[in-house]
Design goal:
Helix content is 36%, strand content 21%. The protein is built from 30 helices and 36 strands. Strand 10 and strand 11 form a beta hairpin.
């Protein structure tokens, strides 16, 4: 359904200019002008402002706030009257690398605000906790949550032929899709993607509509100057260099049309990417090595500069996507008067006026694309129109915010009235206890202050052996408390059996499980019951704050105190780790008894994790309340810390009861994606090595394709392919004039060397990975270590070197430094989420003898640094690398990593 259909034919009702709107985004055209999401979001913001609204903008990506360009962008936003908030100024720095923590930071900042509308984009799931909070009625009672779908990660990666191999990527996809399910309104910018979401099983809300993007008024615009026959001078690939964007189709097209268009230049106007793990620019250089035409790469143009580039005479833009949502590039080309060709896939035809479909739309294949380019070169290009009026789109969007808010809130009020008028259900609080009488006493007193009053308490003493505990249980007097109290005594049987025993004596409609060492906030039961009633869930879990001392428990809430961020029901993610939340949860009694309750295994924990997996996999509805509901005590010697983690994990896995084929399908898919990713990486290494100049191709497999290091390698590779003339503009853009002249002089000398049969390069760079070496060994310390401690492991392509207080951990990788190396560089990182800075360095040894030691670098949590040294002693033998770490203060989060080794070899 179109948003226009919801509004009616004449959306001219007076606009409520007092509407309070918050726009949450990780991209804006003011900071990020080469992405469609940022372009569309800035367009929405400017449209709101032009209608008299003053939105608040919550920006959720990292910014260099000291950068003049960023400061200029902030000033431009503030001039409009909009309030700009950078999330990074309100959350711990390391959170900004973790999507779920960014989502929780959004919830925390917005939870007490009174916005009428909060708008999110789907990308990275920024709205996950906010939308879930509203769905459980724990916050945002008068706010409407709107999410616009630009292109979910799962959809984009499947089209780009990239496996979702890592848990991190699978988690991002989960955050995105669940945010859509929990929102009040979903706006899709094409029918195509809304159809895809429903096809993969995403349950979209009742209010789901299709509506086009709004482009910022600052985008360049123009009038078509028809491309006359015979005047085509440049064909531009206008997109990021992805499979989904038709990059491979364009390469094949160039090879076919280049012989017919010898004077035409071919340009790639968009960021570099990875194609089956290979650097896209490197792939282009190799595939097009025999094409004599000029090949141009413009990888860092922002939106306005890119459109201005395309508006030059004789230029044809090509967007040969194999699948699309509603690409801003097509919208921008039509608006700016840029001649273009694109494909008839996804939501693209919805953007182009039907009368022009035959002129600009082709099948996503190189033959029809090549033929269309030849036709345009011969016959020219005429005007193309949009399929809609952008001014009407803007007006409908703003009216939609107002009208949707009114309808959604009317429905919410009706639901709240129905819940409030219902009889308050009886809740049985089941407390398990073993040898902790003081904690139990405090807990029972704390329950007196619950805002929800209709509850009973069932205390299960699990065979306490402590005399004080036995005496306290024996003397418990039900008359001392305002609530009904029952005491149950059993022989020591462990948590699963103790909780089951408590349920047998429970009379409530719901069971609230409660551990005696945790402290509930006064609103805990009320919020859990409300969430269960509003969502009709069988199980409701909640957020907790960790504390280690009583003073921490009594202090005010702050973000720094949150260490565990559950996702709620999230199979298959929640099999390997408890993503549901703590056992302190609310369960509908009938559902608990029908399920059979907890399994009873003595001496093994994770019974709650197993229970939650079983409940989700058997189709029970589960919800999570992101509001802090209780204080979770972190203490040494707890049951969780004293039981086998391996046996607990095996127990949790056994909770999976595959009653629906989709769970089995998801599990198989996750395993398959991981294996496929390994296969693609191995194939990419082999394929890159088999290309001409294969060693340099292989070096470009790692890291960000647009990083300075990979751009430098790309320039080197271009020189090897004798593409010097093509690269001049890139060199001039990247360096100062003096540096550019020096580079060109160096390249000229290298070409002379190549032609005379000598080496092109004076040095050869190589990236070495620890995963390729099997004989890694711990040198220090080797004594006085706690049992089962591991001070190193290879993980995520790097090697962890765990620092110890006041001692230096040394881990040796024998023979990793090749003979002939004259420089060694090791990038280090501190992957702990918090804590103290660590020190890292490395040594180079040969046959046990120290050759060189690098400078020590200090790294803070979430930070990175690198250390380097030169090897002055020449030898024909390989060297050993010794990685070192240390830390000054005791902490639990000292995770020092060496990411890889970069060496430069003498020729």
């Amino acid at each position: 359904m179109e948003l226009a259909d919801f509004l009616g034919q004449s959306p001219d009702a007076p606009l409520n200019t007092s509407l309070k709107v918050c726009i949450v985004t990780n991209e804006l055209a003011e900071f990020h002008q080469n992405g469609g999401l940022g372009t569309a979001t800035s367009g929405l913001i400017h449209a709101l402002i032009s209608r008299g609204l003053t939105p608040t903008i919550l920006y959720t990506a990292k910014l260099d706030l000291s950068s003049p360009s960023v400061q200029a962008g902030q000033k431009d936003i503030q001039k409009t009257g909009a309030e700009f908030i950078a999330l990074q100024e309100h959350v711990p720095a390391y959170w900004m690398d973790v999507p779920r923590k960014i989502a929780y930071g959004c919830y925390w900042l917005l939870r007490n605000e009174d916005f009428d509308v909060i708008h999110f984009n789907d990308y990275l799931g920024n709205g996950f906790y906010v939308s879930q909070s509203r769905r459980t009625a724990s916050n945002f009672p008068n706010t409407t949550i709107i999410v616009t779908v630009h292109g979910p990660t799962r959809w984009a990666m499947s089209i780009d032929q990239r496996p979702m191999a890592s848990v991190d990527i699978q988690e991002v996809s989960f955050l995105e899709l669940r945010t859509l399910e929990f929102s009040d309104v979903v706006l899709g910018v094409s029918h195509h993607l809304i159809g895809w979401l429903r096809g993969v099983g995403v349950t979209l809300p009742k209010h789901t509509y299709v509506h086009k993007n709004i482009l910022p008024l600052t985008s360049p615009s123009g009038t078509y100057k028809s491309l006359a026959p015979g005047l085509l001078s440049e064909v531009v690939f206008f997109a990021r260099q992805d499979v989904r964007k038709g990059f491979l189709i364009f390469l094949d097209t160039i090879k076919r049309v280049a012989p017919d268009l010898p004077h035409v230049k071919f340009t790639f106007l968009g960021k570099f990417s990875n194609i089956a793990q290979e650097h896209s620019g490197a792939v282009a250089l190799d595939v097009l090595s025999a094409v004599p035409n000029l090949i141009n790469f413009c990888h860092d143009y922002d939106r306005d500069r890119a459109i201005s580039y395309l508006m030059r005479p004789g230029v044809l833009a090509v967007m040969p996507s194999v699948d699309e949502n509603s690409p801003c590039t097509v919208f921008e080309c039509i608006r700016a008067g840029v001649p273009f060709v694109t494909t008839m896939v996804g939501g693209i035809p919805e953007l182009v006026a039907p009368k022009n479909h035959a002129d600009v739309l082709v099948e996503p294949a190189f033959k029809p694309l090549a033929q269309r380019i030849r036709n345009i070169a011969s016959n020219g290009f005429e005007t193309v129109a949009l399929a809609f009026d952008p001014a009407i789109i803007e007006e409908q969007m703003i009216q939609g915010f107002d009208r949707l808010h009114g309808v959604v809130q009317s429905e919410s009020v009706s639901l709240r009235k129905a819940v409030d008028s219902s009889k308050l259900p009886l809740v049985s609080v089941v407390i398990t206890h073993f040898n902790r009488p003081l904690m139990l006493k405090n807990l029972l007193a704390t329950l007196e202050h619950q805002s929800y009053q209709n509850f009973e308490v069932v205390v299960v003493d699990d065979g306490s052996t402590n005399a004080d505990a036995a005496a306290f249980i024996a003397n418990l007097n039900a008359a001392s408390y305002s609530y009904q109290l029952k005491v149950v005594r059993i022989a020591n049987s462990y948590l699963g059996a103790a909780r089951n025993a408590g349920v047998k004596h429970a009379a409530g409609d719901y069971i609230k499980f409660q551990d005696d060492d945790n402290i509930p906030f006064r609103w805990e039961i009320e919020d859990l019951v409300r969430a269960a009633m509003v969502s009709e869930a069988d199980v409701v879990t909640g957020m907790s704050r960790f504390f280690r001392t009583e003073a921490e428990a009594e202090s005010g809430l702050s973000l720094q105190q949150f260490e565990y961020f559950p996702l709620g029901a999230s199979l298959p993610l929640s099999i390997s780790r408890n993503e549901y939340g703590d056992a302190n949860s609310l369960v509908r009694t009938a559902a608990f008894r029908e399920s059979g309750g907890f399994t009873e295994i003595y001496g093994v924990g994770s019974e709650d994790h197993e229970f939650f997996v079983m409940m989700e996999s058997t189709g029970r509805k589960m919800m999570f309340v992101p509001k802090p509901l209780f204080n979770y005590r972190v203490a040494g010697g707890s049951m969780l810390q004293s039981t086998s983690a391996y046996r607990g994990a095996q127990r949790a896995k056994s909770g999976l009861k595959v009653t629906e084929s989709r769970w089995l399908s998801e599990l198989i898919s996750a395993h398959h994606e991981a294996q496929l990713d390994r296969d693609i990486r191995h194939t990419a290494w082999w394929r890159a090595g088999s290309r001409k100049h294969g060693e340099l191709h292989q070096q470009m497999l790692e890291g960000d394709p647009n990083s300075d290091s990979n751009i430098n390698r790309f320039l080197e590779l271009a020189a090897k392919y004798e593409r010097l003339e093509d690269m001049i503009h890139l060199v001039l853009k990247k360096n100062s004039l003096l540096e550019s002249l020096q580079w060109l002089e160096d390249m000229a000398k290298r070409f002379q060397q190549l032609q005379s049969g000598r080496n092109l390069l004076k040095t050869r760079a190589r990236i070495l990975h620890f995963r390729d070496f099997d004989s890694i060994e711990l040198l220090e310390p080797t004594a006085d270590l706690p049992i089962e401690w591991s001070l190193w492991r290879v993980e995520n392509e790097g090697i962890m070197v765990h620092p110890l207080v006041g001692r230096v951990t040394k881990v040796m990788v024998p023979g990793i430094i090749p003979a002939g190396t004259h420089k060694v560089t090791v990038p280090f990182s501190h992957r702990g989420p918090k804590g103290e800075p660590i020190g890292m360095a490395f040594e180079v040894r040969r046959s046990g003898r120290l050759i060189e030691t690098s400078p020590w670098v200090q790294i803070f949590p979430g930070g990175k640094a690198e250390s380097a040294l030169f090897i002055h002693e020449e030898s024909s033998e390989a060297c050993d690398l010794v990685l070192m770490s240390t830390v000054e203060k005791s902490q639990d989060w000292a995770w020092g990593f060496a990411d890889f080794v970069s060496v430069k070899l003498k020729s």
